[in-house]
Design a protein that fits this description.
- By secondary structure, this protein is mainly alpha-helical.
- It folds into 2 domains: about 1-235, Alpha Horseshoe (Serine Threonine Protein Phosphatase 5, Tetratricopeptide repeat); about 240-309.
- About 70% of the residues lie in helices and about 0% in strands.
- The chain contains 15 helices and no strands.
Length: about 300
C-alpha cells in the first residue's frame, strides 16, 4: 500500500504542476494581449508574476516556470522608464548601456533578477523549451547590461535569435539590442544589414530609422571601428542648427577624433563653439574640454573648467 500511496502522491504532484502550468500560460497570453492594446496595468504584471512563482514552486525543475518569472520581471521595466524604441536607441548610441538603464537600484536589481531566472531556465533545460527564443532575448538584454562579455561576442551569441519566434513585445528590444551592440563592436557591415532589415516588407521590429538616423548609426559604427575619416564624413552630415542629441553626440565625437589625432585645439574650438550656440547648459562638454586640456597642457580654452591641479 505504501508503494501505491507514493504513486498517488506523484500523480497529484504532476496534476497540480500541470494545472499551474496551464494557468501561468493563460496569464502570459492575457498579459501580451493587454500590452498590445496598451492596457497593461501594474496589477496585471503582479498577478502574472505570482502565478509564475507558484508554478516554479510546484515544479522547481521546469525551465518554463523560471522563464515566466524572468518575463514577469521584464514587464516592470517600462514602469522604471526603460523603453526600447528608436528614440531611446538614438539617444543612447554614444553612451554606456548603464546610462540608458539609469542609476536606480531598483532597475539594476530587476535586471539582475531577470538574468538569474532566465539563466536558471536555460540551465534546467536539456533541449529547447516553449519560450526558448524569448528566453535568449532576455539573456541578450541582461548580458548587455552586465557588460562582462564584449559587444562583438554578444552579437555572435544572440544575433542568431530567430525573430520569427519572438513574442510581439520582444521584437523591438531585439533590434534595439542588436543595433546597440553591433555599433559598439564597430561592425559597419552588420549595421548596414540591420538597417536594410528594417526596410523589409515583413519586418516586425517596430524600430525604423530616418535617413539622418541611418547616417548617424553608420558614423558611430565607423568611429567604434576606428575608421575616423569615414566617421567624420557621416557624422558631419547629421549635424543641424538644432542642438539635439544627434548633433551634440556628432560634435563631441568629432572633437574626440581631433583630440586622438593630436589636433586637440581644433577639437576644443569645436566644442566651445557648440557650447555657446547650444545655450551653455551642458556640463558634459566642460568636463570633456577639461580632460583634453589635462592631457594636452599646451591647449587653450575660453571655458571655465576649474583648477587643473
Amino acid at each position: 500500500m505504501s508503494g501505491l500511496g507514493y504513486v498517488y502522491r506523484k500523480e497529484i504532484f504532476f496534476l497540480f504542476a500541470r494545472d499551474q502550468s496551464v494557468r501561468a500560460e493563460k496569464s502570459k497570453e492575457k498579459t501580451i494581449e493587454l500590452w498590445k492594446s496598451g492596457n497593461l496595468k501594474e496589477q496585471d504584471v503582479e498577478d502574472f508574476q505570482n502565478l509564475a512563482v507558484t508554478y516554479s514552486e510546484k515544479d522547481p525543475m521546469e525551465p518554463q516556470a523560471f522563464h515566466l518569472i524572468a518575463r514577469s520581471l521584464y514587464w516592470n521595466l517600462p514602469r522604471l522608464g526603460i523603453h526600447f524604441d528608436s528614440s531611446s536607441l538614438v539617444l543612447n548610441l554614444g553612451s554606456n548601456f548603464s546610462e540608458f538603464i539609469g542609476k536606480t537600484q531598483l532597475a539594476q536589481s530587476t535586471l539582475d533578477q531577470i538574468f538569474w531566472n532566465a539563466r536558471t531556465a536555460e540551465s534546467l533545460s536539456s533541449s529547447s523549451f516553449q519560450d526558448w527564443e524569448n528566453n535568449r532575448l532576455l539573456l541578450f538584454l541582461t548580458e548587455t547590461n552586465r557588460q562582462v562579455k564584449k559587444p562583438g561576442t554578444l552579437t555572435k551569441e544572440y544575433g542568431s535569435i530567430d525573430s520569427s519566434k519572438l513574442s510581439p513585445e520582444f521584437q523591438a528590444p531585439f533590434i534595439w539590442l542588436l543595433t546597440f551592440n553591433t555599433m559598439q563592436a564597430g561592425d559597419a557591415a552588420g549595421l548596414e544589414k540591420i538597417i536594410e532589415t528594417t526596410k523589409l516588407p515583413d519586418y516586425k521590429g517596430g524600430i525604423r530609422f530616418s535617413p539622418r538616423e541611418e547616417n548617424f548609426l553608420k558614423g558611430m559604427g565607423k568611429y567604434y571601428k576606428k575608421d575616423y575619416v569615414g566617421a567624420l564624413a557621416l557624422l558631419r552630415s547629421t549635424k543641424t542648427d538644432n542642438p539635439d542629441k544627434i548633433t551634440e553626440t556628432s560634435v563631441i565625437t568629432e572633437a574626440t577624433i581631433f583630440h586622438m589625432q593630436n589636433l586637440t585645439q581644433k577639437g576644443i574650438d569645436l566644442l566651445e563653439d557648440y557650447y555657446g550656440r547650444s545655450g551653455k547648459n551642458n556640463p558634459e562638454i566642460i568636463q570633456i574640454v577639461r580632460k583634453m586640456v589635462l592631457e594636452r597642457p599646451t591647449a587653450k580654452t575660453k571655458l571655465e573648467i576649474g583648477s587643473l591641479k
